[in-house]
From TrEMBL:
PANTHER family named among the record's database cross-references: PHAGE INTEGRASE-RELATED (PTHR30349), PROPHAGE INTEGRASE INTD-RELATED (PTHR30349:SF64)
Keywords: DNA integration, DNA recombination, DNA-binding
Family: Belongs to the 'phage' integrase family.
UniProt domain Core-binding (CB): residue ranges: 143-226
Biological processes per GO annotation: DNA integration; DNA recombination
Organism in which the protein naturally occurs: Desulfocapsa sulfexigens (strain DSM 10523 / SB164P1)
MF-aspect GO terms: DNA binding
Coiled-coil zones: none
NCBIfam families the record matches: integrase_gron
Protein name, entry field: Integron integrase
A Pfam entry, by short name: Phage_integrase
Length: 462
């Protein structure tokens, strides 16, 4: 493919900017320009002749390019001609030396005799090929992807990824399937992925994290289901990543929110703040996670399947023991009605058949009602659902009228920020939070006032 000289690329980009083309789209315009010049060279056409454009668009259409891409390519070529005819850009410059690689040298490469004749021949050939190409393309669309999803789920479960990861990857795969109109997986290409990621950024305007999740999902799909690799992906419009500073509550604000809550939700929020827990970690505690003699709470299978320990807050020990007594009474009542036990992870139940009914495996925050499973007629106990906790917190926040965006994760942010404010070192906080990289923990340095440098003030306060 023709490589555009840097001087010309810069000149063309400046012209695009003058014509109102946003900078994020300029790389695409340059890409279409290279394709166009390469096409003209291959079919012995003159790039400056307008008859070459229809043949080029027919070629793109035969490659199953999307309508908005065809429009973008057409605009890129029209702007090239406009720049060529502009005295402001071209002027009356003299033709450079023969071996110089510039705008005029490109013209010399693609200029041939009998241009009109060659254009007509190329256009006719393209029109003859196009119907068969379109027919073939349509033939490979509307294919059943159920086998793809089956293999994707099996692959994720085999690697013991979380259910959230499975749900996320399946969701983005469905979006991708819709975008390519259920094309036969055998004919799905990296170009489809590029177009999909660019579509998410430009049309759907998703966040950078959502686009990265989609990229990871499709990368996993290609490697583990389609058995192919992306290679290097260039020319994708990436969603702009915005620096995020978490919302943190003061100790007084936390007390105000808690005053509008009742147990067990109040105790759960206090535990999340007191130990820096994620909501998924808090709701899934079992009896054996609490070691009151040592004052240690063990989190099993946290984010990334990592385990960690945190100290149990002294102020909560009495109420946590009361909750443990309540769990014991619920368990005794369940045993009397002959329930089938709690849900266990993975294949633990197959290995330990009596474990679901043993006390140590009971949920620390059990659901109010038993769950009836239609498939086998069993009655099982599940933990409090996270949406129940979120709704209770939302009601309390509404009553508290605190002018901050507060979620359950805000209390985890507050835990880290208050420890940092109390001069705990960043490595200790990293271990308590369960972060793999200290750079993730470093974001909390933006939530507390610095003690080592002069505090920033407004000139109005001088």
């Amino acid at each position: 493919m023709i490589k555009l000289p840097k001087e010309f690329s810069a000149q063309y980009s400046k012209f695009l900017k003058d014509q109102g083309v946003e900078q994020r789209f300029q790389s695409f315009y340059l890409k279409w320009l290279r394709y166009y010049l390469d096409f003209c060279t291959k079919y012995s056409l003159k790039w400056s002749e307008k008859d070459s454009l229809p043949a080029f668009l027919i070629k793109l259409k035969s490659k199953n390019q999307k309508p908005f891409m065809l429009k973008q390519a057409e605009d890129a070529i029209h702007l090239l001609w406009k720049m060529k005819n502009s005295e402001e850009v071209i002027g009356q410059q003299k033709k450079p030396p023969e071996k110089s690689h510039n705008f005029y040298d490109i013209e010399a490469q693609v200029a041939k005799d009998n241009r009109v004749k060659q254009t007509a021949i190329a256009t006719r050939k393209m029109k003859e090929v196009l119907p068969e190409t379109e027919k073939s393309a349509e033939k490979h669309k509307g294919v059943d992807w159920r086998q793809v999803y089956s293999e994707l789920e099996s692959s994720i479960r085999m690697r013991h990824y979380s259910l959230r990861t499975l749900k996320s990857y399946v969701g983005y795969t469905r979006q991708f399937q819709t975008f390519v109109k259920s094309k036969d997986p055998k004919f799905v290409e990296v170009e489809d992925v590029k177009a999909f990621l660019s579509f998410m950024a430009t049309e759907k305007k998703v966040s950078a994290s959502s686009q990265n999740l989609a990229f990871n999902a499709l990368l996993y799909l290609f490697r583990n289901v389609f058995k192919s690799d992306f290679g290097k992906i260039d020319g994708v419009v990436r969603a702009k990543h915005k620096p995020y500073i978490p919302v943190v509550l003061s100790r007084e604000e936390i007390d105000i929110v808690l005053s509008y809550m009742s147990n067990p939700y109040k105790l759960m929020i206090e535990l999340m703040y007191g130990c820096g827990l994620r909501i998924s970690e808090c709701i899934s505690f079992r009896v054996h996670n609490f070691n009151f003699d040592m004052g240690i709470l063990t989190i099993h299978d946290g984010k990334g399947k990592k385990d960690r320990t945190v100290p149990i807050p002294d102020k909560l020990k009495g109420r946590l023991k009361e909750q443990l007594t309540f769990v014991g009474s619920v368990h005794d009542a369940d045993l009397k009605v002959g329930y089938d036990g709690v849900f266990l992870p993975d294949r633990l139940e197959k290995k330990y058949k009596n474990a679901p009914r043993e006390f140590i495996w009971q949920w620390f925050f059990p659901a109010k009602e038993l769950t009836h499973i239609l498939k086998n007629g069993e009655n099982r106990r599940y933990h409090i659902h996270e949406t129940s906790l979120q709704k209770a917190l939302r009601r309390a926040v509404k009553k508290a009228k605190i002018p901050k965006r507060i979620t359950s994760h805000t209390f985890r942010h507050s835990f880290a920020s208050h420890l940092l404010q109390a001069n705990y070192d960043i490595r200790t906080i990293q271990e308590l939070m369960g972060h793999s990289d200290v750079r993730t923990t470093m974001i909390y340095t933006h939530t507390v006032k610095s003690t080592t440098k002069k505090e920033a003030k407004s000139p109005l306060d001088f």
